[in-house]
Amino acid sequence: MPDHVAPLDLLLLPTWLVPVEPAGVVLQEHGLGIRDGRIALIAPRAEALLKPAREVRELPGMLLTPGLINAHGHAAMTLFRGLADDLPLMNWLEQHIWPAEAKWVDEAFIRDGTELAIAEQLKGGITCFSDMYFFPEVASELVHKSGIRAQITIPVLDFPIPGARDADEALRKGLALFDDLRVHPRIKVAFGPHAPYTVSDDKLENIRMLAEELDAGIHMHVHETAFEVQQSLEQRGERPLARLARLGLLGPRFQAVHMTQVSDDDLLLLVESNSNVIHCPESNLKLASGFCPVERLWQAGVNVAIGTDGAASNNDLDLLGETRTAALLAKAVAGSALALGVHRALRLATLNGARALGLDDQIGSLEVGKSADVVAFDLSGLAQQPIYDPVSQLIYASNRDCVRHVWVGGKQLLDDRRLTRLDEERLIARAQGWGKKIAGSRL
C-alpha cells in the first residue's frame, strides 16, 4: 500500500543504524519506519520525517541493530544457574545436572524457568532464541504470551525424560505441537536429538525422515568434546559427524551445536552439506570443552551462528557478551588479530543466527519487508566515548545494560529498560523460591 495511504505506525530516529545486510554498513542520521509489524522504510532522517507516522521516537546517542538471535540454549535451566560450577562436562552432566533434572523438572519448573529466561533475554536485546529442553509445549505457550520469537525443539533421547517415557512418545507429542504451531507467526518447531552419544541410529533415521517431510530443522549437540569424538571412534569406528552424514542428517536444516573438534574431513562434510554450526564460546570455556575454529569455518563458507547455551553452564544469557567473547577467542584460536572483526561478529549474532534457524527471510537484518525485530543500544555513556565506529563500541566496549528498547514484530517488549509484558519482580521472587527449595534438598 502506498505511503500516502497508510501512515507508518512508528518512526525510529537513532543516531546510527546498522542494517547488517549489506555487510559492514553504518548509516548515520537515518530513520526506520515500521508498519503492520514490518520494516516499511529506511531512509535519511530528513526524508523519513516527510512520511506520515502515528508515532515518532527520537533515539539520540543510540545504535539501532537487528534483534540479537540466541541460536542455542536450554531456557528453563536458568533455575539451575550456579548449581554445579567448575566441573568437566560429563561429571557435570552425569553427577549433577541429570540427577537434578530427574528430581525437579516438571511443568511448573519449565514454566518459571522459561519465563525467567525470556525476560533476561529481552533485557539483553535478544528477540529470538532456540530452546532445547523438556516440555516444549509449555515453553511454546510462554513464548506465545511474551511476544518474543523462538525455535522450540522436540527433545529426543534414548532414555526416559521429563514429559516423555521414551523417544517415541516425545516424537508423538512433538508432532502434535508441530501441527498446533504450523502457522504461528513467531514460533518454529524443530527436532532436538540431544547428542550422537544419547540417540541411536534408528531414532536418528526416523528424525531425518520426519524433518524432510515437515521441512523442519534438526538441532543437536555435536563434537562438543574430544572425549565424545574419541569414544565414537572406539565404539563405532567413525567420528560422530561422519555417522550423522552417513545417516543423512546433515544439510541446510542441520544445526550442529558446539563443534569444538573439527578435522579436515569434518570441515569438508560441513561445507558439502551446507550445514550450520552454532558456536557457544563461554559454555565451552567454562566446561573446558575446547574451541570451535570459527575463522576457519567462516573462511570455508560454513554458516556460523552464536548461542549462550544454558544458564547452568554459562551462567548468563547475555548474547552481546557472548559475541564479544567469540570475537576475542576467534583471534586467539586463529592466531590472527584479523579474525572475526566486529561487523562479522555482529552478523554471527543476527543474520547468521536467522539463517541457521531457517528464518533469514524474515529476520536477522534491517531490510524493508522483514519483520521489525529491532534493538536500540544506548551508546551515550561514559564507557563508550569517543565513538569512531559504533559497532566496535557495541562489541568491545558495551554490555547488555546498554539495551534501552526492544521491538519484536513491531511490538515494543522493552521500553526504556522496562519489560512491557512481564513482571520482573514476580519472576525474581519465583526464581528465589526455586533456589531455596533446590538448595534445601541438597543439605
TrEMBL record:
Keywords: Hydrolase, Metal-binding, Zinc. InterPro entries: Amidohydro-rel (IPR006680), Deaminase_MtaD/DadD (IPR023512), Metal-dep_hydrolase_composite (IPR011059), Metal_Hydrolase (IPR032466), MTA/SAH_deaminase (IPR050287). Its cofactor is Zn(2+). Binds 1 zinc ion per subunit. GO terms for molecular function: 5'-methylthioadenosine deaminase activity; metal ion binding; S-adenosylhomocysteine deaminase activity. Gene3D superfamilies: Metal-dependent hydrolases (3.20.20.140), Urease, subunit C, domain 1 (2.30.40.10). It catalyses: S-methyl-5'-thioadenosine + H2O + H(+) = S-methyl-5'-thioinosine + NH4(+); S-adenosyl-L-homocysteine + H2O + H(+) = S-inosyl-L-homocysteine + NH4(+). Zn(2+) binds at residues 72, 74, 221, 309. CDD domains: ATZ_TRZ_like. It is an enzyme of class 3 (hydrolase). Residues 64-412 form the Amidohydrolase-related domain. SUPFAM superfamilies: Composite domain of metallo-dependent hydrolases, Metallo-dependent hydrolases. Its EC number is 3.5.4.28, 3.5.4.31. Substrate binds at residues 101, 194, 224, 309. The keyword Zinc-finger does not apply. It comes from the Bacteria. Catalyzes the deamination of 5-methylthioadenosine and S-adenosyl-L-homocysteine into 5-methylthioinosine and S-inosyl-L-homocysteine, respectively. Is also able to deaminate adenosine. Belongs to the metallo-dependent hydrolases superfamily. MTA/SAH deaminase family. This is 5-methylthioadenosine/S-adenosylhomocysteine deaminase.
